[in-house]
Amino acid sequence: MSDFPARARALVIGCGIVGNSLAYHLVEQGWSDVVLVDKGPLPNPGGSTGHASNFIFLVDHSKEMTQLTVESTRQYGELGVLTVCGGIEVARTDERMEELRRRMASAKAWGVEPVSLVTPAEIKELVPYIDESILLGGFHTPGVGVVDSLRAGTIMRERATEAGGLAVFPGTEVRGMDVEAGRVRRVHTSRGTIAADVVVIACGVWSPLLAAMAGAHIPLTPMVHQMIDVGPVPRFAQATSAIEFPIVRDMDVFMYERQDGTSLEIGSYAHRSIVHAPEEIPSIEEAALSPTEFPFTQADFDPQLADALELMPEIVGDESVGVKYAINGLISLTPDGMPILGETPEVQGLWSAAAVWIKEGPAVGKSLAEWMVHGESHIDLHSSDVARFHDHQKTRAHVVARTTEAFPKTYGIIHPAEQWSSDRGIRISPMHARAEALGAVFYEAAGWERPQWYEANAPLVERYGVEAREAEWDARWWSPICSAEHLAMREHAGVFDLSAFCIFDVQGPGALDALQRSVLAQMDVPVGRVVYTPVLGPGGGFKSDLTIMRLGDEEFRIVTGGAHGMADRKLFRDALPADGSATLTDLTTAWTTIGLWGPRARDILASVTGDDVSHEGFPFATCTELEIGSQLVLASRISYVGDLGWELYVPIEQGARLWDVLWEAGTPHGLTACGIGVYGTTGRLEKGYRAYGAELESEYTVVEAGMARPTVKEQSFVGKEAHLRHREEEPAAILCTLTVDDHMSASGVKRYPLGREPITLRDGTPLSDGKGRRSYVTSAGAGPSVGKHLLLAYLPPEHAVEGSTELAVEYMHERFPVTVAVVGSRPLFDPENARIRS
Amino acid sequence: MRALVCVKRVPMTGGRIVLTDDAQAIETRHLGFASSPHEECGVEEAVRLVEAAGGESVVLTLGPAEAVEQLRDAMAIGADRAIHLQAEGEEWDAQATAAAIVDAIRADEAEHGPFDLVLFGNESADAGGYQVGLRVAAALGRPAATGLKAVAVGDGRVRCEQEVPGGRDVYVLPLPAVVTVKEGLNLPRYPSVPGRLRAQRKPVATVTPTRPASRLQKLRLVVPEGQGTEATVLGHGADAAPAVVRVLDELGVL
Q1: Which of A625, B34, B97, B145 has the smallest C-beta neighbourhood within 10 Å, fewest atoms?
Q2: Catalytic site includes residue A553
Q3: Beta bridge partners of A453
């Protein structure tokens, strides 16, 4: 067709809810020459948007998800396609009631109101056709609604087209992409070739195929979600709108029921995981219904019929009400359950806007548009970043394994520390056999099997008198051994397997400048210095925090956490100079890291090396090479646990040897193997050390986090202007350390908050800061050496008062009194840092 | 009243039909399965006859293990029990199919007494052989009427209406009889959820018949030219209204 443009500022592929929204918001935010294509017809091109159930429950335990959902609902309302009907998540079991109480806390933490716990009788009043006698209660969200996502997409396309910024081409199939010098240049379509600065894949279940055209990965899989439609329902015969009764989520049997005109729609996540491959999806011409509506497999749904009948006998048990429509609808699932958003790490200019459900679509469109146009989005999308995946996580086998495991948990009760059971054992540290011999309980980090604690240390629990946790939920995925290992480290020394670190070397004449531009801290430091630094976004919020060693004039080593390491790698790669004067090499699998900390750490290290490890000879925040036997070890004197000690780097094949040498030398000094429970939680929290993704997110500033340094470096860096501005302003919130004063619950069981709970006044009033953010627990855990359960939380300045006892933490719908122990970053344990600097 | 209705599991084609690489079958990877539409009316009719007169309705199919789904579908809307002639793999032609069904009918009748009425679809939705019902009737020596749009049973007879150009031919057959029916005979009900649940518990007798050597050889399937749908845009917005009215008028729905 002749009117198909030869070039575009942005080419968005896919006219589902995400593509429509993104195209609209790009135009809204000032871009023109935006082109939107889809191989299917409009308004329903045949993707998952077209068969979506279109209801939106607002509260999720994930802040990022909740923010996206709330913003999307706002947009649907503004577009006039939202019908608010309310929603009730009902409980048939005590475990579910506990989960609903936890949901109350999440609602308060993220500011979703109103919500309430309702009794079976109250549920009956709201949903008169329910059999409340089988229920224990419910979680009622009056703001739940149903949207017309196809209509929303149409309106957004029309608005953007009328504004002159968008051209839309349905019936346009993408057949190939040209990538040159690592950047996407052109896209070949059935209407011709189009050059574009930015290409966005918003193709839902087809997205992996599109990404593969450019050599990128969007690791999602189509999976079946079954739904049936029964009717006509006599009670709904007089219905004047599509939905007049609240949507019911029957959580314990993984189903939902909602009125849809004169019908009742019954959806299920209770059936077996039915995975399809993207390349198996039929073409529009071949599909009997739409490409993403697969033939219903009755046998998979049959077991759920009885559950639906039990909950809604009046309707489902009515012989005159027939099953009129039933499909296996395809939805997109990802290995970690989060969307896949952002510029792909493999191809510059190629963005992913995939694995997004109806409830997130409009907000994702807006956030991605902000990210493209302004460099970052208001909502922190780090959990959804396409750059987060490690290589093994991009494989089909991993995607299938994890989504198959996750699907039955769609309505499941997921513990915040819950571990995956499928596709484990991918990355094995050189110390693994030693850890196994010590009874390590392995948690997964970036695919690594990482000891969380060691069962061999069980005798320490009695020795240090560590209390067990009484409530099963609080004790799940936890062990008192963590606290015992902590106390052993504080008394003697601990050795840690830190193999999950990501390690990148940045080298070359342009290395210093590239790093200066990327991070907050001054990087022009003497060779041998170790610098801990935040990495900021353009708005001055956190994009990461990590350490950088200066190994030479033109040689730097970045060490960062495994979980966020791949996103960090993209960030630093993108910052490399165009002239090639600096390179980044990923040495994660070349080096392994062993941590050695505790008051006896120096004695242990000194006994295995002839090099000077005295305080004067090896000062804090420096690194140097040590000879330990026949091993050359890069030692870095820093600490994330607040004790004297070192991170020791050796080639990965020598890790086991180094561990053995330290182990043998350390035994007379009381050396204890310590798990990540100490490294990531107890040691860290006692010292008030912040963690990326918990305390440090893009919506908080360096000043709020209490991490502003006395001066700001002269050189420019990302986020500098915003950071300078933040330093002039009064912070809207201040990160504080809180202690729980009394753990006793109403039921007489001591409870221990695990994190993400709201901080309130003692009467339950939530705290909001000047930017409208709620105060919530960013991290929680034991402080064994201070004898308290510790919470980190951002508090509005008027409440950030040391010694204040006016606050409480709300956990499982009960409030527990807390004291503000520290305002800012001063450590609760060893506030003078005498241990680290001894 | 004892009624037997025979159904066949066929792919539900909605889009463009794709053949397997060897052109021996329809590619069913993306397709669901159902009983042929004519037979769905047959099931509904059998259920209604038994609802009205009492007795038993039985559903029978010859097909793979998965064909039990179609038997459950029939039982979900009211058939009392099912007979599954399990046949894997090879093509059963009309002769072989009819022979197996005749054997099954004789075996069932020996135990439970004769079927007053045996219902077939006029032709299957996939092979379209138009033969099985008549072959079964001939083998059993029972009268048969085909292509029926109305069936009424009373006084030991069945009154049959066959659609012909310009009107309907009416036949009255003595029972027991065989009829083949067409879509439009009735409006089949949707299964209710309780019906679905009951169907799971209803009995299915499985028999494995021996396939006689086929006297037909299938060379290959061919998808006819010109298959597919064509869309004409009648106009946009309110301007399209007169054209829409014209089309509706032509269709005789106004």
Answers
A1: A625
A2: no
A3: A441
> Which pLDDT belongs to residue A563?
93
Domains within chain A, CATH numbers bracketed: 7-189+221-333 (3.30.9.10), 415-501+588-669 (3.30.1360.120), 502-580 (3.30.70.1400), 730-830 (2.40.30.110)
- The verdict on a CB contact (< 8 Å) between B69 and A288 is no
- The per-residue pLDDT for range B175-189, each reduced to its tens digit, is 999 999 999 999 999
Q: What CA–CA distance (Å, rounded) separates B81 from B115?
A: 14
Mean pLDDT of all residues belonging to chain A: 97
Residues of chain B in contact with residue A232, where contact means CB-CB under 8 angstroms, are: none
CB contact under 8 A, A324 and B73: no
Neighboring chain A residues of B73 at a CB cutoff of 8 Å: 298
Nearest to B95 by CA among B72, B69, B118, B62: B62
The answer to whether B9 faces chain A, any CB pair under 8 Å, is: no
**Chain A partners of B196 at a C-beta cutoff of 8 Å?**
302, 305, 323
CATH code, residues B2-229? 3.40.50.620
Kindly report, residue by residue over A727-780, the tens digit of the pLDDT. 999 999 999 999 999 999 999 999 999 999 999 999 999 999 999 999 999 999
Measure in Å the smallest separation between the Cα of B181 and chain A Cα atoms.
23
Whether A700 is catalytic is: no
Instruction: Kindly determine whether residue A294 and residue B30, on different chains, have CB atoms separated by under 8 Å.
Output: yes
Q: Is A238 helix (H, G, I), strand (E, B) or coil?
A: coil
8 Å CB contact of A288 and B15: yes
Q: What is the pLDDT of residues A183-239, one digit of tens each?
A: 999 999 999 999 999 999 999 999 999 999 999 999 999 999 999 999 999 999 998
Active site residue A615: no
Closest in A283, A298, A324 to B190, CB measured: A324
Q: DSSP letters of A539-599?
A: TSBEEEEEEEEEEETTEEEEEE-HHHHHHHHHHHHHTS-TTS--EEEE-TTTEEEEEEEST
List CB contacts of A260: < 8 A, sequence separation 6 or more: A229, A242, A243
Instruction: Give the nearest partner residue to A322 out of B33, B73, B189, using CB atoms.
Output: B189
Structure confidence by residue, pLDDT tens digits, A315-367: 999 999 999 999 999 999 999 999 999 999 999 999 999 999 999 999 999 99
Instruction: Tell if the CB–CB gap between B14 and A288 is shorter than 8 Å.
Output: yes
Threshold 0.90, pTM exceeds: yes
R_g over Cα of chain A: 28
Read off the tokens for A186: 């052109």
**The two three-digit tokens of residue B251, written as one number:** 């269709």
Split at pLDDT 50, 70, 90, the class of A614 is: very high
Report the length, in residues, of chain B: 254
